[in-house]
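Example for tutorial group B:
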């Protein structure tokens, strides 16, 4: 049997990474997008977003680049994609509907309705986008009515579990592969696609379509709940003079709980967790089981309160008002190792402080251009030192490694007052206080210098 050819519909964060990874696994791949400027970037071996390792992978495989394997090409043509592919991955975005909690399926629907009329031979269509449960069955019916080779077209759902900053690793070496299928043919083809990671030990779980659709949203709901739980504990610590960092450390040693996602701070953001839990609640309501997910409303509420609390801490630190005060913001992206500022708590806090009359200067290692597009009225600098010059307070809001390695003494030379607010609880208060800084962190009103436990010393 000839080797499988793969198409990837949608070349944003998910699709560009998936296409490059499939080429790395040895497949001939054709990526498709309707945005010509994005395709032009990818054809030049450049990623449309910052993701560690992605551009190296693209340059290794994009056709026309010297020394590449030539296994990866890009197009804007659906007829070309339909003719080329044996397996078609749908990787387009599913944003939140404007003014609603529900998921906007228009991009997925458009991709399927554009591709299906060009499916003239046996093929497998695989959804990777995060969608409301029940979408796969509806899309299968759509394909059945539009594809010339409808009886030979299967649809499967293969949710993505990528972490921004680790997407290449997560695609090539997934911690699990979930395949929602309706028959043996689809499962066999997906096992071929993922033969290398399966051979390396990645578990392959074949399920029905609804279960596969639910896995991603359920996982994001759980992670969101865990983050908001520790942030709720931070609120208690604020009131009771506790230390949420030490509390989280103690909780994490319980192997039923674990240390991951127990870092209190200004909360989660990005293009996945916030909109996914809201879409999950909306879909539960449509299914008549809205009470099953009412707890997610409080998860969402706790998360949004963290941003407001950061504003309150800043006001408190500056004597009750930020009007006319100079504030340096370290971080604009919603997490480190990404240029993604979608629903970023850091940028949201920066924008709110600006609206309250503060003179806000932002520095982020990778997200400045995207941040400027969202908040053009903020001031941006190219280094932490220049951003902090003349500042009355410095806010640490994205936990880039670079910020953890800053020299507090050197930073102290350029600020007006040595006052730092740690919105991510990753800086060592002892180091900053030793350099003469007033240190304040969320959930740690009387934070003691960090002490290494025996487990941490190892």
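The residue assignment follows.
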């Amino acid at each position: 049997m000839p080797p499988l050819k793969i198409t990837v519909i949608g070349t944003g964060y998910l699709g560009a990474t998936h296409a490059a990874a499939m080429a790395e696994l040895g497949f001939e791949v054709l990526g498709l997008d309707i945005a010509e400027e994005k395709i032009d970037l990818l054809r030049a071996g450049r990623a449309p977003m910052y993701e560690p390792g992605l551009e190296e992978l693209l340059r290794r495989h994009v056709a026309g680049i010297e020394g590449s394997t030539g296994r990866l090409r890009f197009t804007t043509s659906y007829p070309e994609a339909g003719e080329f592919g044996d397996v078609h991955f749908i990787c387009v975005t599913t944003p939140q509907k404007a003014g609603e909690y529900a998921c906007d399926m228009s991009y997925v629907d458009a991709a399927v309705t554009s591709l299906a009329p060009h499916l003239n031979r046996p093929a497998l269509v695989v959804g990777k986008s995060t969608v409301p449960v029940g979408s796969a069955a509806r899309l299968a019916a759509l394909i059945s009515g539009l594809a010339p080779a409808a009886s030979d077209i299967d649809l499967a759902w293969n949710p993505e579990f990528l972490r921004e900053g680790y997407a290449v690793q997560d695609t090539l070496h997934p911690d699990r592969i979930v395949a929602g299928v309706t028959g043996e043919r689809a499962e066999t083809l997906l096992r071929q696609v993922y033969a290398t990671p399966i051979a390396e030990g990645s578990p392959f779980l074949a399920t029905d379509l609804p279960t596969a659709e639910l896995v991603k949203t359920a996982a994001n709901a759980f992670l969101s709940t865990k983050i908001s739980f520790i942030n709720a504990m931070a609120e208690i610590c604020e009131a009771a003079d506790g230390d949420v960092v030490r509390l989280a450390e103690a909780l994490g040693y319980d192997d039923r709980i674990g240390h991951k996602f127990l870092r209190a701070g200004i909360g989660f953001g990005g293009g996945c967790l916030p909109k996914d839990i809201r879409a999950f609640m909306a879909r539960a309501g449509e299914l008549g089981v809205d009470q099953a997910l009412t707890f997610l409303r409080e998860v969402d509420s706790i998360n949004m309160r963290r941003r407001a609390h950061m504003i309150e801490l800043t006001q408190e630190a500056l004597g009750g008002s930020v009007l006319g005060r100079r504030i340096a913001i370290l971080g604009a992206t919603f997490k480190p190792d990404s240029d993604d500022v979608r629903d970023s708590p850091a940028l949201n806090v920066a924008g709110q402080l600006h609206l309250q009359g503060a003179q806000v200067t932002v520095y982020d290692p990778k997200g400045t251009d995207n941040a400027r597009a969202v908040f053009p009225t903020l001031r941006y600098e190219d280094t932490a030192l220049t951003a902090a010059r003349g500042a009355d307070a410095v806010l640490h809001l994205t936990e880039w490694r670079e910020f953890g390695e800053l020299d507090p003494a050197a930073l102290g030379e350029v600020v007006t007052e040595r006052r730092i607010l740690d919105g991510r609880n990753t800086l060592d208060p002892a180091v900053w206080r030793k350099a003469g800084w007033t240190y304040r962190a969320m959930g740690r009103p009387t934070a003691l210098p960090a002490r290494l436990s025996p487990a941490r010393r190892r």
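Residues 209-240 form the longest helix (32 residues). Compare this with the pattern of hydrophobic and polar residues in the output above.
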